[in-house]
Known about the structure:
The complex is a heterodimer of chains A (258) and B (261).
Chain A: H1 2-25, E1 36-43, H2 47-60, E2 64-71, H3 73-81, E3 88-90, H4 94-102, E4 106-116, E5 118-122, E6 143-146, H5 151-162, E7 171-173, H6 176-184, E8 190-194, H7 195-200, E9 206-208, E10 218-225, H8 231-242, H9 244-252
Parallel strand pairs in A: 1-2, 1-3, 6-7, 6-8
Antiparallel strand pairs in A: 3-10, 4-10, 5-8, 5-9
Helix pairs in contact in A: 3-4
Chain B: H1 9-32, H2 38-42, H3 45-78, H4 84-96, H5 99-110, H6 117-124, H7 132-157, H8 160-168, H9 173-201, H10 205-210, H11 221-231, H12 233-257
Helix pairs in contact in B: 3-7, 3-9, 4-7, 7-9, 8-9, 9-12, 11-12
Amino acid sequence: MFKRTSAAVLAASLALAAAGCGDTGDDTSSGGGGSKTLTVFAAASLTETFTALGKTFESAHPGVKVRFNFGGSDSLAQGITQGAPADVFASASPATMKTVTDAGDADGTPQVFTRNRLVIAVPPKDTGKVAKLADLSRSGLKVVLCAPTVPCGAAAKKALAAANVTVKPASEESDVKAVLTKVGLDEADAGLVYRTDAKAAAGKVKAIEFPESAKAVNDYPIVEVKKAPQGALAKQFIQLVLGAQGRAALTGAGFEAP
Amino acid sequence: MSRSSRPPWFLLLPALAGLVFLVLPLAGLLARAPWSTLGTRLGQGQVLEALRLSLVSATLSTGVCLLLGVPLAWVLARASFPGLGLVRALVTVPLVLPPVVGGVALLLALGRRGLVGAWLDSAFGITLPFTTAAVVIAETFVAMPFLVISVEGALRAADLRYEEAAATLGAGRWTIFRRVTLPLVAPGVAAGAVLCWARALGEFGATITFAGNFPGRTQTMPLAVYLALQNDPQAAIVLSLVLLAVSVAVLAAMRDRWVRT
């Protein structure tokens, strides 16, 4: 009885997984017939902005589809060095970009196109327990940070060190969205997230700016991938991001000019 | 039933393909393992810490599963009441639910602002998320159906006449359950417990969602593997090897002793 059920469940989940994966790998190189697909690997924090810029790009280039793979910069960089078919890589930190340039997978020098800084995220029904960065060290306060190995965690570590504040986090989350979830559900009293993420989650969390965030500003570099199937389109997309339209979309989302 | 009959080709070929499919990823893991630096990497405190936490929490959660799951299986197999089918469906929900969703559900029920969690917090000052207890709860949530289904199957297959004979000889219900029913279904319970333990050991989604990730407190091996994979794939491979070795060793040992098929 059990064996049959579990086999069925396994088969079903495998089918789902296969269906899900099939979508991402295909049609990158479908160059013919005027329909081309540009594949952009971008840091998760760029999701809203780049999706909008992708629409702009598509309407300016008829017959071109822009497909995004948003994720943690580390895993995206790992993917590119393992040969994932990307045209453009936009990363949330120079360190993760370095993984790609060191592997010789970048075409040209990465250009910093925007910057992001941290804010303190608190639950919407904040009781005023947290007003400045130093408050995070108070005992009894549940603080969640990103793990030090991911960019937002590295930035948090830097900001806390610069401010000479010691925090004993309740959890070191795998990415910035997980921190937002924990704060948004009011399971944590505070977390350090990017200003843009807090802005995108407005209503679910409240953002508190703190001056020490200036010491841990993240640069976002962008580059064309060396084996880009759509090299010419990749260059044009990067120009769009670096240009006035890109700048406007980024600052509108809470990013800063480089 | 003869087990020695030669399998026909139309079963043998897909069976072989299936076996290769299951074994190939493990071969990849072994082929890419940094054998030369294995010793030094294993000595790192964080690996042992995560391994210890994984073993302890998986074992505790198997204990909880046994305490609650065996009676639940008995009810499903022996009792009859309206809505029994619904109860059985509910029990198997965690089996098909994505574990991350399970983790969110646990937060909404047992979190600081959750249905029951808010009361736990105000009445006893207990908050579960971000604690080792939360790890055990998350693992129990996803692992218990494995035990229940396995034990229920064993109970259904067991011959009721033994229990009836014991009853006519004057044994009480507790004595019958302890001295007749349990020994009868012991292999099913053992198999269920092993599956349950293995599932708990590998638990990732519900744990990282409900218990968070902090070394020594809630960072089990799967979580350590996932985080290591983001910036140090070699370390992730080493951690995976350890987890693989431990689970294979335990499953092999148990299989020989209790779960002989």
